[in-house]
Every structure is written in structure tokens, then in C-alpha cells.
Design a protein that fits this description.
Chains A, B: This is GntR family transcriptional regulator. The structure is a homodimer. The first copy, chain A, is mainly α. Chain A has two domains: 63 residues, Winged helix-like DNA-binding domain superfamily/Winged helix DNA-binding domain (Arc Repressor Mutant, subunit A); 147 residues, GntR ligand-binding domain-like (Four Helix Bundle (Hemerythrin (Met), subunit A)), CATH 1.20.120.530. Helices cover 70% and strands 4% of the residues of chain A. Chains A and B meet through helix 3, helix 4 and helix 7 of A and helix 3, helix 4 and helix 7 of B. The structure holds a DNA duplex.
DNA sequence: GTCAAGGTAATTGTCGACAATCGACATCCG
DNA sequence: CGGATGTCGATTGTCGACAATTACCTTGAC
């Protein structure tokens, strides 16, 4: 028999590839490498002190999450975003997340999810008070939405969300600020939580569509003005 | 200046990796390697007369399309499907494709898409008459649905569809037959086409939800009985 | 001065080899 | 005889090197 309450949990043995991928993703999202920039396998491999093989595999991983684009015989490049692409992205998010939240309320484990949602909302307020760490704010926001997809009960929604999460982060970081008021941003998640707690499917979908929709408007507008300011 | 309408399009120079990936995907979907089977890099590389590197990259590609599962330090395995997973898959397809068809009718280029839909429906009838080539039927079916996602105007829907297309094919092939009557299957696409042509957004979403929903029911039921017949 | 052609440097594509890790069998102890 | 431990073969993980392709720069003609 096995110990029902083991003293040691399974050790996360993420290999070299995952670590490299994480480093690259962070460098891109944090803006240390600019969109459109070439990602030289040799250079990155040399910098990290590893061979090209893991770098190449990591880059392919990042390609799936939309951060990187691959062109045959040319290499990997940091994904460039347009306001139109961001608009499409947000439209897609609305579809995914409203379906996820509807399923969550209808058939998911709301009881188990609520404390996690509350904790995440608390985290949102915490980083809002700190105020200056943009990346933390973005990630706290995305973590909240990820919880909803995770709690839906259909892993497809979570997979779809994870695929576009990094790209969304990149877009938000490019804009340079999340909302006019970080506090208001944190508070805008509360109605979603309330509708879930009330098992109000229609209200929940409406709340999240409103939430993402206003973010979509804000992001697209702001990005468009950036494009005009810095014409390619 | 360049020829605005070149006589020769860009030649698809799919490298070794893509060819290997295609071969592997076909072998899996066609059922030549069974679900759960190990995909030995060395063996495949030796069989194809190439090194392990392209095989490994191809396997990672197939992982993204859901055909293959990767376990660190253990290798690649053909994805196993359960009736529950298939049910989740079809639920997700309904969400994606009904959103895509709604956008298509509302803002897509219906005029340009209609002839392609008609051609695909004709192809569906053609393979239905042939009758015995299951893979062809499955692929003709998926191609029709892909057209809708492609015509939606938001490439996100197409990307999401392509990611789950191979997995859907695999599920259908595992079942061993598409519908009771291939002819009826072909005909069941006509109402979708009609609603699109009429620019009836509500009717189109209803038609495609009905279409995929009945397939979902059929597939899930049939797969469940298979599971009971061959208990793991 | 502009454009095309050729050569060259740099990068990716592929390969074979070695090291690390895993699963299974044999072995040892209670 | 049951369970834990040690060992072995096989497979993946990573590496450095060579071949193929690309992009850039130089050269030359008009």
C-alpha cells in the first residue's frame, strides 16, 4: 500500500527545455526583446551556456503559445501584434471564456472555486496597491481568468486559454499600462465572482463579456494610437 | 516592381520535418499505430532513413495537434481517447464553430465562400458514393467545417479548429464508421449552407449546433459502447 | 545612379555520438 | 514467499560538427 499522505510530493522535474522556454517567454513578455526581433539559436544557446537543440525545442514550444513565429530556413522571430490582431484575440477570448463560465455555473464545482477566486481578487488588489509592477498586474489579471477556464470542467477551455494567454500578456505589456486605475481594474472582477456565486449563468456570461469587452475596447483603442504614433 | 498576379505561387518548400510529421499523422489517423502505442524516435528515424532530430521535432508538432502525447524522459505516445474526452472535444467544437459561423454571416465574405462550400458538399456526396474509404469521408467532412472557420474572418477560429481537427479525425476513425448512412451525412451539411446563403445568423448557428450536436451524440454513444466491449 | 549578378559570411537544417534517465529483471533479506 | 534493493538494457536528453540555405555586401554593367 501507499502512504495516503506522502511526506514528499512529486518533484517537478522540468527539464532544460522548459527552463529555457520560460526564460525566453519572460524576456519577450517583459519587453527585453522587441517584437519582430530575430531570435538567433546560436546566440541564445551561447548566452545560456547550452547547445542549440534545447533552444530550438523551447522556441517551438513558444511558437504554440503565440509568442514566437517560425519561418522555415529563416529562424524564429518575436511575434508582432497589430491592433486588428489584438481585436481578434479579444473577440476569441470572449467566446472561450463566456462558454467556460457558463459551463462552470451549470456543471462545474463552484463551491471549490470560490475561495480561489477570492484569493485571486485579493491578489489583484495587492498588486494594484503596489502600483508600479506592470507585469505582476497583468499576470494577476490573467490568473483570475485562468481560474474560470480551469473550473469549467472541460479542459479544452483551459488549453485554449493557455494558448493565447502569453499573447494577451504581450499585448498588454506593449500598451504599457493596464487600466487608467489599477484599483478599478481589480474591482471590475468582483461582479464576475458575484454572478458565479449566485449560480447565475446568464449574469455570469454577461459580466465576463462586459469585462473582457471593455478591456478589448481599451486595448484596441490604445494600441491603435500607438501604431499611429510609431508608424512602422 | 513585382508581378501583382504571378504565374507561379510560392513553392511550398516543406522541409524534412513537415514531411515526417505528415507521415506520422497519417499513420496514426489511419490506425496503423494504435492509441497508447509508444513512438520510438530511434525506430521511426531508422525506418525513414533520417536522424532523430527531425523525428523529434515532428513529434512535437503532432503534440500540438493533439495526436501525440509527450512525457518527459519517456518519449512520445499516441494519444488515447475516452468517450468523456470526445464529448469535451465536441462541446468545444460547438462553441468554436457556432461563433465562427455567426461571425461569418455577420461580417465575413459569404459571397466568396458559397462556391467553395458547394464544391465541398459535392465532394461529400462523391466520397459517400464511393462508400468504403473511411478516411476520405472523414477528411471531406472536416474540410467543410474548416471552410466555415476560415471564412469567419477571424483567424483565431481557424487556428483553434486546426488544433483539434486531427484529434477529431482520430476519434471518428476509431469508431470505424461516420454515420449510419454516408449519404445522409453528406446531406446534413446542406441546411448549414442554406442558412449561410440566407445570411440568417441565428439559423446558421442553430444549424451547425444541431449538426455537430447530433454527431456528438452519435460519436459519444458509439465510443462508450466500444469502451465497454474492449475494457482497458 | 540604379539595378542585376556573384561571392561571401552567417544562420538554420540535419546528423551521429555520448551522457542521463527510465523500466524491467534479477537478487537479496525478512 | 513478499517486498525492497541493485543492476542492466534501452530510450530519451543533450551536445558539437558538418551540410544546406539564406541574407548581405561587393562588384560590375548600363
Amino acid at each position: 500500500m501507499h502512504d495516503p499522505d506522502p511526506a514528499f510530493g512529486p518533484l517537478a522535474r522540468d527539464g532544460l527545455v522548459d527552463r529555457v522556454a520560460g526564460l525566453m517567454a519572460e524576456a519577450i513578455v517583459a519587453g527585453r526583446v522587441l517584437p519582430g526581433a530575430r531570435l538567433s539559436e546560436s546566440t541564445i544557446a551561447r548566452d545560456l551556456g547550452v547547445s542549440r537543440a534545447p533552444v530550438r525545442e523551447a522556441a517551438r514550444l513558444l511558437e504554440n503559445s503565440g509568442l514566437v513565429r517560425y519561418r522555415p530556413n529563416r529562424g524564429f522571430f518575436v511575434r508582432t501584434l497589430s491592433s486588428a490582431a489584438l481585436d481578434n484575440l479579444y473577440e476569441f477570448r470572449i467566446v472561450i471564456e463566456s462558454a467556460a463560465i457558463a459551463r462552470l455555473v451549470a456543471r462545474g464545482d463552484v463551491e471549490a472555486l470560490l475561495p480561489r477566486l477570492d484569493a485571486q481578487i485579493a491578489e489583484l488588489y495587492r498588486v494594484a496597491e503596489a502600483g508600479d509592477d506592470m507585469l505582476r498586474q497583468v499576470e494577476a489579471d490573467m490568473a483570475f481568468h485562468r481560474l474560470i477556464c480551469e473550473g469549467s470542467g472541460n479542459p479544452r477551455y483551459l488549453a485554449a486559454f493557455d494558448q493565447i494567454a502569453n499573447e494577451t500578456k504581450l499585448g498588454l505589456m506593449l500598451i504599457g499600462r493596464l487600466y487608467d486605475s489599477p484599483r478599478r481594474m481589480a474591482g471590475s472582477h468582483v461582479p464576475i465572482r458575484a454572478a458565479i456565486a449566485a449560480r447565475d449563468a446568464q449574469g455570469a456570461t454577461a459580466a465576463i463579456e462586459d469585462h473582457i469587452g471593455s478591456a478589448r475596447h481599451m486595448v484596441t483603442e490604445r494600441f491603435r494610437s500607438l501604431e499611429e504614433g510609431h508608424p512602422a
